[in-house]
UniProtKB/TrEMBL annotation:
Superkingdom classification of source: Bacteria
Family annotation (PROSITE patterns): ADH_SHORT
One biological process term in Gene Ontology: bile acid metabolic process
Protein name, UniProt field: 3-alpha-hydroxysteroid dehydrogenase
Organism from which the protein derives: Oceanobacillus sojae
GO molecular function terms noted in the UniProt entry: oxidoreductase activity
UniProt keyword annotation of Transmembrane helix present: no
NCBIfam families, alphabetized: PRK07231.1
Length: 247
C-alpha cells in the first residue's frame, strides 16, 4: 500500500464524486489533504469529515487564476510545502456536435483544460524548489475513445492528455512527475445526472461499473514514491471497456 504519510496534497473538485473518494483515501494513507472546491462551505464540510488535523479547506474555482494563487499560498502557509496536485475537477456535457453551443464548448475548455493548465503553473514553482513533486491529472477514456454525442468533452480531455505528456517532458528534469489516469464509467453523481446509460455493465469485461475508490487507489500509486520512475504515464481504469466486448 502506498505511503503518503505527511505528504501535502491538493485535490481539486474534492467535495464530491471521484475527488471526494480520492481525498478520503489519501487521508487514510496519512496525507495532509487540501480540499479544493468552488464552494468553501463544501470544502469545509469534507475537511471536518476527514479531520481538521489532517485537512485544509480551500476555496478553489479552477477557472479562476486568483483562486489558484490564493489556494496554493494558503497551503504553503499551513504546511510549508506542496508535494502532490490531483487535477480532478471537471464537467461533462453530452450533446450532439451540431447542438453544442460555443458557450458549451468554452465552458468545457475552461474547466477541463484551462483549469489543469493553471493548476500545473500554480504548483510547479514550489515543487521545483523542493526538487520533487507529483502531478496527477484525472482525465478520461474519452481522450482516446470518445463516446457518442460528446465531441466537445472528448476534445477537452484529449487536450489534457497531450498537455500532461508535454508537462512531463518539461518538468521531469526539475524533479516533478506528471502522470494521467483515464477513468471509464465511474458511478458518481455526475454520471448519474447525465443521460448516459449506466444500468448496463454488459459491455465492460469486468461486468461492473467503476467506483470512486478504484480511481483513488491508482491516484495514490501515482502520487507516491512507489511510482518514482513513472513520468508521462497514462493508466486506464475502465474495467476493460475500451478493449472491446464479447457481447
Amino acid at each position: 500500500m502506498p505511503n503518503l504519510k505527511d505528504q501535502v496534497v491538493l485535490i481539486t473538485g474534492a467535495n464530491r464524486g471521484q475527488g471526494k473518494g480520492i481525498a478520503k483515501h489519501f487521508a487514510s494513507l496519512g496525507a495532509k489533504v487540501a480540499v479544493g472546491a468552488r464552494s468553501f462551505e463544501d470544502a469545509e464540510a469534507l475537511s471536518a469529515e476527514i479531520g481538521k488535523n489532517q485537512s485544509l479547506p480551500v476555496q478553489l474555482d479552477v477557472t479562476n487564476e486568483a483562486d489558484w494563487t490564493a489556494a496554493v499560498q494558503s497551503i504553503i502557509e499551513a504546511y510549508n510545502k506542496i508535494d502532490v496536485l490531483i487535477n480532478n475537477a471537471g464537467i461533462f456535457i453530452k450533446k450532439p456536435l451540431l447542438d453544442t453551443s460555443v458557450e458549451d464548448f468554452q465552458q468545457l475548455i475552461n474547466v477541463n483544460q484551462l483549469g489543469v493548465f493553471m493548476g500545473i503553473k500554480a504548483v510547479a514553482p514550489y515543487m521545483e524548489k523542493q526538487q520533487k513533486g507529483s502531478i496527477v491529472n484525472n482525465v478520461s477514456i474519452s481522450a482516446f475513445a470518445p463516446i457518442n454525442d460528446a465531441a466537445a468533452y472528448a476534445a477537452s480531455k484529449a487536450a489534457v492528455s497531450n498537455l500532461s505528456k508535454s508537462a512531463a517532458i518539461e518538468l521531469g528534469p526539475k524533479g516533478i512527475r506528471v502522470n494521467s489516469i483515464h477513468p471509464g464509467v465511474i458511478q458518481t453523481n455526475m454520471v448519474s445526472g447525465s443521460n448516459l446509460n449506466i444500468n448496463e455493465a454488459d459491455a465492460i469485461p469486468l461486468r461492473r461499473l467503476g467506483q470512486a475508490n478504484d480511481i483513488a487507489q491508482v491516484a495514490a500509486f501515482l502520487a507516491s514514491d512507489e511510482s518514482a520512475y513513472c513520468n508521462g504515464a497514462e493508466i486506464v481504469v475502465d474495467g476493460g471497456l475500451t478493449l472491446g466486448t464479447d457481447v
